[in-house]
């Protein structure tokens, strides 16, 4: 589960590049479809990142757009990488990963840094198996025990990024509610808080708690994740709801969320005081 180049990130970049090249060529999608020999709907899916185009299709598109030299080689490399399978795809169809979440996992796998703000739940990369299992069991239409086990297995596999040789940098700001809300009973919660203390000793993990006493703050409308990638991939902000997700890529919007995250860092307890509070909450249990 190392980072490197994730096919998810590659495919998004390829889609954006092909869409922009078509616009620069003053061609509509039907004209491209007719010239390439594919359906207009296929051009739409390629440009909307709904499908990974065949290498031969990309090659003909680049001929049409008169793309040569280094740019052509770069885009053909993207076309090859975009059709590879990500490690997480082995969990598809097993009840472990909803389709709408797959894109995020691909991005997480390619990321070099995540800036997390969580308002209610300890972030998935820091959850213990028992904590996550207890959370899953509270859903109104709870999954089967087998599905829950698969989801936990997949969650733990994602956490490998924190200890891999190309370890992911994680800066997690948790609202105080995250460490105080009882999930799974006292024993489960104590073990979860103890895990936070242990994982915080890693040099690539930074934890802060946003205390209740802070009062109002700039992220009261919900949790978010700012995802950073190695060059040349641009950053993305991820927003999640109960059944789907949004990916914000406009540079001005992404920068706005970075400003909010820095605001939260300033409002939160220091790392030392955050860990002291986590330890105290654990002792109080």
State the shape: elongated
What is the β-strand count?
6
- Count of helical regions: 12
What would you report as the Rg, rounded to the nearest angstrom? 21 Å
State the share of residues found in helices, binned by percent.
Answer: 40-55%
Strand order of the largest sheet: 3-2-1-4-5-6
SSE succession: HHHHHHEHHEHHEEEEHH
Low-confidence stretches: none
How does the helix and strand content classify structurally?
alpha/beta
Average pLDDT value?
Answer: 91
Strand residue content:
5-15%
Largest sheet: 6 strands, mixed
Distance between the first and last residues' Cα: 35 Å
In terms of quaternary structure, what is this? single chain
Would you write up a description of this structure?
With 285 residues, this protein is of the alpha/beta class. The chain contains twelve helices and six strands. Strand 5 and strand 6 (245-248) form a beta hairpin. Helix 10 (186-199) runs antiparallel to helix 12 (271-284).
